[in-house]
Amino acid sequence: MEKQLSCADCGTRNCHRELKEYPNFCLTTHLQPGELEKARDVLANHPEYAKLAYYATEIEGMKGLTRVEDTILLAKRLKAKKIGIATCIGTHPEAKIFARILEAKGFESVVTVLCKVGSIDKTEIGVPEEFKLLPGKGHEACCNPVLQTIILNREKTDLNVLIGLCAGHDYIFMRHSDAPATVLLVKDRILGHNPAAALYNTTIYYKHLLEPDS
Q1: Which stretches within the chain are classed as H helix?
Q2: Can you give the pLDDT at residue 126?
Q3: What's the gap between Cα 20 and its chain centre?
Q4: What count of other Cβ atoms lies within 10 Å of the Cβ of residue 7?
Q5: Of 21, 144, 155, 191, which one has the fewest beta carbons inside 10 Å?
Q6: Under a CB-based contact definition with an 8 Å cutoff, are residues 83 and 110 in contact?
């Protein structure tokens, strides 16, 4: 099957400043009728997404900011008063620090909900005992992004911040969150919560990632 070329195969990134030429497979030049107009209308006029698009773009133009500072500025631009934090148990220490930062910056309330809230055993959602981290050692709670959103929705948070939720659980959380949700930290136990390190090392330590699975 012929490979479908897309942005990962681009060498010009002409869509950024239009100083070069678009490759013949460019997605920008192969849009379907109405797609660009729809995107522009949402970014400029949608009652919820337009302000998020504007504030995110405005903050992007501010140089020298960390992701923590980006998130705080976004919350302030949104005039958020109550911030929800949905955190993995493995990143609980980082969530505690971020909660302290938010309180220091004057937000009225910070509600942090751990992923194990409700304490439902993994076997109750169909996960076999042998797939637990400690099989045969008794109760081991599954992550519960749905209950995290139920609680934060009930608390009527203005912005929810994800810290370390598992791949897949983050999707479930975002689909169920009433408030806008943004990611502060992506969990990677092996690489100190810096998954990009695996990408940077594909020529040496992680070159097996570029090899086909046997």
Answers
A1: 14-17, 35-45, 49-60, 67-77, 92-104, 145-154, 169-176, 196-200
A2: 98
A3: 32
A4: 12
A5: 21
A6: yes
Is there a contact between 59 and 65 (Cβ–Cβ < 8 Å)? Answer: yes
Between CA 200 and CA 207 the distance in angstroms is 10
Q: Please check the confidence at residue 1 and state whether its pLDDT lies above 90.
A: no
| Cα distance between residue 141 and residue 125, in whole Å | 10
Residue 187 vs residues 51, 148, 170: alpha-carbon distances, Å: 28, 17, 11
Over residues 83-135, the pLDDT tens digits come to: 999 999 999 999 999 999 999 999 999 999 999 999 999 999 999 999 999 99
Mean pLDDT of 39-67: 97
% residues pLDDT > 90 (the chain): 99
CA distance 181 to 191: 24
Taking residue 88's Cβ as centre, other Cβ atoms within 10 Å add up to: 23
Distances (CA, A) of 36 to 19, 20, 29, 39, 188: 20, 21, 10, 5, 36
- 3-class SS at 158? coil
Q: How many helices (H) and strands (E) does the chain have?
A: 8, 4
Q: What pLDDT, on the 0 to 100 scale, is given for residue 118?
A: 98
User: How much is the pTM?
Assistant: 0.94
Asked if pLDDT for residue 214 goes beyond 90, the answer is no
State how far the Cα of 89 lies from the Cα of 104, in Å rounded to an integer: 23
Residue 119 contacts residue 143 (beta carbons within 8 Å): no
